[in-house]
Structure formats: structure tokens, C-alpha cells
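Progress note, project year one: complex with zinc ion.
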Amino acid sequence: MRGLPDYHVHTYRCGHAGGASRDFVLRALELGLCEIALTDHIPLYFLAPEDRDPKLAMREDQLEGYLAEVRDLRDEFAGKIPVRLGLEADYAEGREDELARWLSRADWDLVLGSVHWVAGGWIDDPSSSPARFEREGTEALYDEYYRLVAKAAATGFFDVLTHFDLPKKHGHRPAARRNDAEERALAAARAAGCALEISSAGLRKKVGEAYPEERLLVRAVALGIPVTFSSDAHAPAEVGWGYDRTLALARAAGVKEFVTFERRRKIRRPLPPA
Ligand SMILES: [Zn+2]
Ligand SMILES: [Zn+2]
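Model obtained:
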């Protein structure tokens, strides 16, 4: 895992993650990662104020504190490890103007684009989503999810698309592959210049598989879509977690390089030698 970045990390501000932000950076340094990006969740701008669960994302009044904290860590660790300012931003169809306003509030190094909100609810909520797959149909939810991923990519707001095949998180798999929907999402990512994250987070979930699965990663590589590495850490000990497996996945899929970001400029780097 030495020489790889961890580009998806959540601090206590998200309400469901823990640990001091500084400890995430120390862990990255200890592991020899090349960079770390803090990427807390954007406030839930697309929900009614009373529905903005503080256990899911930072509150609006926490943004300035977040920006200051990442700036301080960047300064403290300068010359040791680059600390990037990131944000995991939900795409919500029809709310693009509000998202643009949020994104204009800081000079981000990278913005992660996530689709968690699908057809009026969370696609990955362990308490409610199993019933949704049952009721609304696994195929339909997958197709709708990928339709939104394609729209998200096309906005141009995002540098990296997160957990590309997220609907599988709790083990729900469509009976028939969603090839058309997947291909449209991948084509949109390519057209927009979005990277995909190779995320170890799925290995910690019921599905027990990284995002994206190898078949989709192979397609992404064939299309020339760049990749980066992430853990979606919610605790310092999860930084760089599972990278032996995601690095092996990347090699098996034919990945030769990964990208990092500085002020939203993409930098290509070779995969570390085996
Ligand atoms: Zn996410
Ligand atoms: Zn996340």
C-alpha cells in the first residue's frame, strides 16, 4: 500500500465516524501512503431541514470549521504527506444549483461524487434499503441508480465517482446484469473526465467485495477511465485498510496508473511496483 493515496476519509463531523482528524493523517503517514484527502459528507442540502440527520453528514454550520481544520492539518504535515481538502458530495437530481453553491464555498482539491439518494430514499441504508429492493425490484433500483450516476458525472461537478456499484452493498444482486445502465454510467464518467475510486469499503460490508467489482473495473480500464484508491475510512484504523486486496484487484484488472488531485488538477502516477 506504500505509495498509494487514501482519497475517501470521514471524520467525526459526519456523525457516524469517529477519531481525531489528525489521527487519520498520522495513520496515513505510518502506512507510507502518498497522500490523504479528508472528504466529509456535504450537508444534506437536498433534504428538508428537519430530515437532515446529523448522524449522516456534517451540519451546515460545521463547514467553516471543517475547512479550517483541513487547512491546519495541511500546514502541519507539509513536507511529510500532502493533506488534501475534499468533500463527498451527494448528487441529487434537480438540485444542481444548490450543489453548485455549496461547491463554490471552498477551493477543493477534489470533490467526490456520490449517489446515495435514489428514487426518494437512501439506496444503502441497512434498515430501509432491503425492503426497498424487495418492493421496488432489484433491477429497477440498479437501473435508476446508474441513470443518476451518469447524470451526476455529466454535471462536471465531480473529480471522482465513489463506490460505483453501491447497490450491491448489502448483497442485493440483479438477476440479469445491468449492462446498458452500467455502460451509460461509464461512458458519462469517461466523457466528463471523472475518475473512479477503487474502494476497499465494500470488503467490510455484507457484500464482501471492493467497489467496483473486477468486471466493471476492467471495463473502466478499457475505456481509459482513471482510477484512484480509497478506504472510505470512518476511523483512523481504517485508513489504507484492505489495500493489499484492492491493489491486487487493480493489477488483475489491468490498471497501470492512478491519479491524485491538487486543486482539482489531475496528476497521473504509475502503480507502485509489485
Ligand atoms: Zn458514500
Ligand atoms: Zn464516504
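The radius of gyration is 17 Å.
Residues 138-154 form the longest helix (17 residues).
No further modelling is planned for this target in the current period.
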